[in-house]
Amino acid sequence: MEILDCRGLACPQPVIRCRTAVGEGAAALEVVVDNAPALENVQRFLQGRGYLLEVAQEDPRCWRIKAVLADGGDGLPVGSVPVTAPQGAGSGAVEGGPGAQTLVLLTTETLGRGDDTLGMKLMENFLATL
Q: How far apart are CA 46 and CA 65, in angstroms?
């Protein structure tokens, strides 16, 4: 099992590290995060890739996500484990499941207001995370 220590990393870095590990064929991952947005985004990303999740809160600011790829031999996930966010992790509600589709409407080329260069980089990172 590959262990990704993502403590101290702001989103989307934990998701990018997970995407790299998944792309390299990791069938089992253990991801440690220390902020609620990272927890929610990593959960959503891994569930969307067909991983079964087990989340344990180690202390008020640290969560350990254990993920195992569920594969029925045809490349499709055989099921999923309902995941509820630990107390204090925000809403944590993840709608849909494997096979669910999401539509994202972008009305600008940048995220936020102010420096357009920064806004473009944020948009690039957002799209890459999707």
A: 10
